[in-house]
Write a structure and sequence with these properties.
globular, 4 helices, mainly alpha
Length: about 130
């Protein structure tokens, strides 16, 4: 995958803008039923993607691993599905079983993706760079 660092950083920037507009909309409407969605857009979307992007930028050899591709394809779609699950869970008219199943599967993808990243980072310790 070309420029894994730049891809993560671009996704982080997109989540930042979405999170800011989402929060601004909630504030203007004085309706905070979806504050958990806003928080997860900013934390999982903006912050996590940004940290991963900066890590891949700081240690380019991380991005050369097949594990990095697995990390990307587990984490990125799972993050989007996780936020959808949080939204559906917060919606009064959603089907709770579907929302919780989606949330659980997406959370598993996030944990697995992050665990892969942690394994790669752990392997990097002690290497000059």
């Amino acid at each position: 995958m070309a420029r894994l660092d730049a891809t993560f950083l671009a996704l982080a920037a997109a989540y930042l803008v979405v999170g800011m507009f989402f929060g601004m909309g909630m504030g203007m409407a004085q309706s905070f039923a979806y504050v958990s969605v806003h928080a997860h857009i900013n934390l999982v979307g903006w912050t996590s993607h940004g940290i991963f992007g900066l890590a891949y930028r700081s240690w380019p050899e991380l991005a050369q691993s097949r594990l990095a591709i697995a990390h990307f394809w587990l984490f990125v779609p799972s993050a989007l599905l996780f936020m959808l699950g949080v939204y559906l869970t917060a919606s009064a008219d959603s089907h709770a079983l579907v929302a919780h199943a989606l949330l659980s599967l997406a959370a598993l993808g996030l944990v697995l993706g992050t665990s892969i990243f942690c394994v790669m980072a752990w392997r990097m310790r002690g290497e000059p760079g």
